[in-house]
Design goal:
This protein is α+β, with helices and mostly antiparallel strands. The chain has 13 helices and 12 strands. Strand 7, helix 6 and strand 8 form a beta-alpha-beta unit.
């Protein structure tokens, strides 16, 4: 039997999760039923749209556009600030529920994941029935809705989940792409961004079908290797499989779209600290150490840039990852306002493997109190992280928070 893959995507995740939280705290208006968005500061009228309600979408509001543009389209638009701690909590609840249904999950962002249908196929009469069960469980137990795309290819499952919303299941098998996908505009294709769309339009490539039938050499001449990737996706070519986050994981990372563009290094550092702590915690949960680290920037011009480097040694320490992330950022940033930041670890090794120590791991005599048995700084950091993880697991993620991440009362 050929593989069958689900792509599970929360409908307007940030807005849905904020709406539920407000309803639970006595608010009588469901943000999902009115023109509403999650974004930056309404008073200052800046930032970008992170999520939108279906009524807001009817005004032509799109995710990622400046809030000031959205307000022009809909003057009565309700703008709510993001609550990333809440979103992390809701995401964790979703992944726990899905893991109880099927253990073979690959989480790709805070609100979406892939699932391998194979382990649960004997429990359901069809993939569509399984998807219906999953959607019902999420709706009834967690209070929000998801779309599920079903396919024999990951990229097609992703595309299918983006079809008509909300709370629906769609299929897009390889044999269905000509009927269901090729008539769509190229802007609908996964990973086909604004600049790629502009280039393709200049080549008179308007639909995904046009792209699928194009000469690959022409595409690569204008879009380099990304042109071939888009051509393969347009033809349903994708051999990747669902990769669960286990010892064989290729990397663990996290990224976030900012509620307003970061204009200074200090603003970026604060986000990098939050991301670094998240990545470090996930590494420790997976009992992995990382040997490489990369930082990704997406500017407000939608141009992307990334840089990577080797870590001082295999680590899952928050401080080491954060310091390295900041150093990479300093080398990479060109001063343009920042829309998205990401931190990703790679070259993972088991945390149980012995680590080759460097001379710099040895503390000074003052640090050891003059004793003859050295206490390694890396070991101290590991013990500290273990203690913090234990406290947070027992008393909640907010039990211990870095002072630099606390928001001033003003």
């Amino acid at each position: 039997m050929e593989q069958i893959i689900f792509h599970i995507d929360v409908n307007s995740a940030y807005l849905s999760w904020s709406a539920l939280d407000r309803l639970q705290h006595g608010c009588d208006i469901d943000l999902r039923t009115i023109p509403a968005i999650i974004g930056g500061d309404m008073a200052k009228r800046h930032g970008v749209v992170l999520a939108k309600s279906i009524p807001a979408k009817s005004f032509g509001i799109v995710t990622g556009e400046p809030i000031v543009n959205a307000l022009r389209k809909c003057p009565g638009l309700r703008v709510e600030p993001p609550d990333h701690r809440l979103y992390d909590k809701r995401s964790a609840e979703l992944m726990r529920l899905l893991s109880d249904i099927c253990p073979d999950l690959e989480q790709v962002s805070i609100d979406e994941c892939y699932m391998d249908y194979t382990p649960i196929k004997t429990r359901f009469p069809s993939p569509e029935a399984a998807a219906g069960h999953i959607r019902a469980q999420i709706r009834e137990r967690l209070g929000f809705t998801v779309n599920i795309g079903i396919s024999d290819r990951k990229v097609l499952a992703k595309m299918a989940s983006d079809f008509k919303k909300p709370d629906l299941t769609h299929t897009l098998y390889s044999y269905e792409i000509q009927e269901k996908m090729w008539p769509l505009p190229v802007s609908s294709l996964f990973l086909c961004g604004h600049s790629s769309v502009e280039t393709l339009h200049k080549l008179e490539i308007i639909t995904i079908g046009d792209l699928a039938k194009s000469d690959v050499s022409i595409l690569t001449a204008h879009l380099k290797s990304h042109g071939r990737t888009l051509w393969e996706y347009a033809n349903g070519i994708d051999e990747s499989v669902v990769e669960t986050e286990q010892a064989e994981a290729k990397g663990i990372g996290n990224s976030t779209t900012l509620s307003k563009d970061a204009m200074t290094k200090e603003e970026a550092y604060r986000v990098l600290l939050m991301l670094s702590e998240s990545v470090a915690h996930r590494l420790r949960s997976a009992k992995q150490n990382a040997e490489m680290l990369s930082v990704e920037i997406k500017y407000n011009t939608f141009r992307k840039a990334s840089h990577q480097t080797a870590l001082p040694g295999p680590t899952s320490g928050s401080d080491t990852i954060y310091r390295t992330a900041c150093a990479l950022f300093d080398e990479l940033w060109n001063g343009t306002p920042i829309r998205l930041l990401g931190v990703r670890s790679s070259k993972l090794v088991s945390a149980q493997e012995p680590v080759q120590l460097s001379l710099f791991d040895l503390p000074t005599a003052q640090e050891t109190g003059g004793g003859s048995v050295p206490h390694l700084s890396a070991a101290k950091e590991a013990r500290l992280e273990e203690a913090l993880d234990s406290i947070r697991q027992k008393y909640g993620a907010d039990a211990i928070v870095r002072g630099s991440l606390l928001r001033p009362k003003s």
